[in-house]
Amino acid sequence: MNDLPVTRQTFDEVMVPVFSPAAFVPDRGLGSRVWDTQGRDYIDFAGGIAVTALGHAHPDLLQVLHEQGGKLWHIGNGYTNEPVLRLARRLEELTFADRAFFANSGAEANEAALKLARRVAFERHGADKVEIVSFTQSFHGRTFFTVSVGGQPKYSEGFGPVPAGLRHLPYNDIEAARAAIGAQTCAVIVEPIQGEGGVIPADPAFLKALREACDAHGALLIFDEVQTGVGRSGYFYAYQDTGVTPDILTTAKALGNGFPIGAMLTTHALAAHFQVGVHGTTYGGNPLGSAIAEKVVELVSDPKLLEGVRSRSEVLKGHLAKLDERFGLFKEIRGKGLLIGAELNDAFKGRAKDFVTAAGQHGVIMLMAGPDVLRFVPSLVMPLDDMSEGFARLTQAVEQIAGSKARTEAASH
Ligand SMILES: *Cc1c(COP(=O)(O)O)cnc(C)c1O
User: Fold this and answer.
1) The domain 8-57+303-412: what is its CATH number?
2) How far lies 267's CA from each of 65, 166, 209, 241, 247, in Å?
3) Which atom of ligand 1 is nearest to the CA of 105?
4) CA 411 – CA 407 distance, rounded (Å)
């Protein structure tokens, strides 16, 4: 057993301080429940940031992990392996795509997508067609290229010269997109629902306009489905409910249910611009991650599971509406499937973090999406009893913040 004592305090002593984790330390999970090192239990509305789509310690995934774990973890891309081929086959049966590239994260999947788009433009049109259009408040990862493409300057400033040829436009602004996308445009990258940026769904007409503008100017349309993908929206990929098909789709987060894996999906015609040696990875497409992801894809693509996501979405929104009725918290409740954002109204502006902290104290794991939005991205198979219990606990947490506020306001009048 382990006899090296560590606590939350140890984090501040040994870790690079780019995170500010909660006061409790999670230790194990099962389904939509998590227990901390003190044995306290939590209802999990965060799913490891939209990752554990089938909940914690899913028995079928554990079985695959054990079986493949005893066989072969890693071999390198000088060899292929059956799990990665099966995974690619399954993803391509479910989507527009017929070629896949595997990586270890969403950022790496986007890095591959952006590099492929630049390469395609270079080979088809020459060295000048380099402009990548993205949107304010978007999030595409933390590598230097992807963070620069992302639309949140607070993440990308202060790291030296930004790669050239990037342009940020307002999200959901059709006129701005039509005006900006032109002969110089290499690619447009967009989240069908902005996740980190505040859970903001794209207007279907906006996505259609992007598709038309890309087609008119020989630019590629990239959908970043790292957060919206693998069932999260109630469809296997969110694009499947928009009437718009991208040229390249990136996926990660829920794809491995917690095992790090990402993928870029595209067509054979575009994939042909990435010849041997032009791009690569050490771990991407390893048999262990691929075997797990194959099982995730098999389970999540079940139409009954996806129907369950859509019905849970209504139940979750109902709970939020009740909370709002009682405390008057929200300006808007939005999102699709089990990617739901509740934007705090002006009385609670900037206080999402306080709600997340209070939720933790009352046994609920929560997320925010910016300072004003509470984000709900639970397991896609969350038992309805756990959801009710989570909202009962959350009600107490909200009472602690909003109840006392209501009292102080009453007292001051
Ligand atoms: C999380 C996220 C990423 C980055 O994924 P990592 O696995 O953290 O690199 C990229 N795009 C979107 C839309 C995301 O939500």
Assistant:
1) 3.90.1150.10
2) 30, 24, 21, 20, 7
3) 7
4) 6
Q: Which two tokens stand for residue 141?
A: 């990862």
Distance 197 CA to ligand 1 centre (A): 12
H helix or E strand, kind and range, residue 298: helix 287-300
pLDDT band at 1 (very low <50, low <70, confident <90, very high): low
Closest C-alpha to ligand 1, atom 15: 227
Instruction: Provide the residue type at 35 as one letter.
Output: W
pLDDT at 408: 54
Contact 65, 55 (CB under 8 A): no
pTM, entire model? 0.97
Minimum-distance ligand 1 atom for the alpha carbon of 104: 7
Q: Any bridge partners for residue 102, and if so which?
A: 263
pLDDT, tens digit, for every residue of 275-331? 999 999 999 999 999 999 999 999 999 999 999 999 999 999 999 999 999 999 999
What residue segments make up the domains of the chain, in order of their start?
Answer: 8-57+303-412, 72-300
Secondary structure letter of residue 399 according to DSSP: I
CATH of the structural domain 72-300, one choice from 3.30.70.970, 3.40.50.2000, 3.30.1360.140, 3.40.640.10: 3.40.640.10
Which residues in 370-398 are b (16+ Cβ under 10 Å) and which e? bebbbbbbbbbbbeeebbebbbebbbebb
186 CA distance to ligand 1 middle (Å): 22
pLDDT(88) > 70: yes
Give me the chain's average pLDDT, please.
96
DSSP letters, 120-164, are HHHHHH-TT--EEEEETT----SSHHHHHHSS-HHHHTTSSSPPS
